[in-house]
Fold this protein.
Amino acid sequence: MLELVQKIIEYLVDNPDKIEVKEVEGDTSTIIQVKVAQSDIGKVIGKQGRIIEAIRTLGKAIGGKSKRNYMIEMIEDTPRYSQ
């Protein structure tokens, strides 16, 4: 599932070298954390969140077959401002 999510996102973004995809496993569920360049966040989320929801739907479909819960999260790297 991790490779599938990474491949899909590589096709969507302009900076595929800045993609970070991590997997956090639990007992019955797996969280897939996706981090992309700041300029590519909108491309992955899509209008009204349609693209990220489609990716999440794929995760649910694959998880249903394997009795596993896959959750896809977008991790936003917010810049820290110094005072």
Q: What stands out?
A: The chain has a mean pLDDT of 89. DSSP finds three helices and three strands in the chain.
